[in-house]
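Thread: UMF1 family MFS transporter, structure

OP (GT): Posting the sequence first so everyone is looking at the same thing. Length is 458 residues per the record. Can we get the structure tokens written out before standup tomorrow? I want them in the notebook alongside the other entries.
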Amino acid sequence: MTGTPGIADLGPLNRAKEQKAWFFTDWAVSAFQTTVAGVLFAPYLISVAEQAACGFVSDSDKGLDCDGTISLLGLDIAPGALPSYVITFSTILGAILYPLIGALADRTARKPDLLAGFAWVGATATALLFFLNGENWLFGSIVFIIANLAGGASMVINDSILPLISEEHERDRASSIGWAYGYAGGGLLLAANFAVVTFHDSLGMSTEMAVRVSMLSGAVWWAAFTVIPWLGIKRRPPRAVEAVEGGLVARSFGQLGATLKDLRNYPVALSFLLAYLFFNDGIQTVIASAATFGEKELGFETGTVLAVYLVVQFVAVGGAVAFGRAARTFGAKHVVLAGLGFWMLILATALVVPSDNFAAFLLLGVAIGIVLGGTQALARSYFSLFIPAGKEAEYFSLYHAMDRGTSWLGTLTFGLVYQFTDSYRPAIFALVVFFVIGGLLLMRVDTAKGIEQAKTPR
């Protein structure tokens, strides 16, 4: 209630309205994350690069062996490793740009405009992938980098909005629902694209055209649904920012410097972020490489990989719920550690899973779905315990910047191992080192001490 008798407090109602609009950010961007980045782009880019390297003239030729390479800046690159290098370069750029973007967002009242602007830039770049054909792998690589960077920037700002539209007791619920919206939205569009790719002959399209149309649909979905949070979230003046000199960009660098300096006062939060850097790198690389592994190593058609990825989307929702319930009994840290052990088991299984065995591939996908939703959901809620009151936006921006901007060692490792072994099996198994290091670092995180540090004024 407000201080004026007889006047109802409309705050909860207004926040609920904004939260509903905010949920659609995940719903919108998931179209790019699943259909494009998760499933279609990497295998399709490899096919285009193989055409450039090997000179295929028809679909029937693509089953032939070819040891050709493509050249960039004097370097010879195996077509199968190209998507890993593209993602690596994109995420290195993100590691540089995202913290600055997060600091910039904290210093402006136009967060919804920034969120939508970056989303629409990403959607436009994604739409340009419709023109990726023939041998123009370099064009496709460049526009994907732009789309991936813009999508990550949009989500950095999205996370910084959460503390503004929810009270502390509402945050877990709002974040979880947003997570569910993302899986649901991505899953629904992926189901439609699965139908397009599977029945492309009936629709009068080649497989290539079906893939290009599906990627275009992801761009349209992303752009259209972003209108909802853009219109539904209020513009608020910045709060609790550091008093630094200069223009907006200079002040953003100053804010970033102040945040990083302040982080030293919360060593447990810093320790968790270091652990998260490693195990999240492994998770993101598995997500980015799963479709390539399914198509190029196990020999499944694009439609089959889409079907399995669709199963992963919906299983991940149940996995997040199950892990959340387990965390109430065993604690988030222990459940995340168990999840990391499960990830290592999955990678060991991928090393020996038989080719052209759909049942084995489907079971592997179900296993990934269970642990995917759980580890990602709990990692975010666990980190929230170590954030000092009043600094949620800047710390969540840093967390999300690490999530989007530092996951490059895994893709680089995956690409290099494939480059030297010419097999995706050792490439995918090599990622186990990221889960081992991340798990060992996470074991050293003292939960009680981290909560105490967050509550102690500094």
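GT: Both are above now. Quick notes for whoever picks this up: The mean pLDDT is 82. The domain at 16-455 is CATH 1.20.1250.20 (Growth Hormone; Chain: A;).
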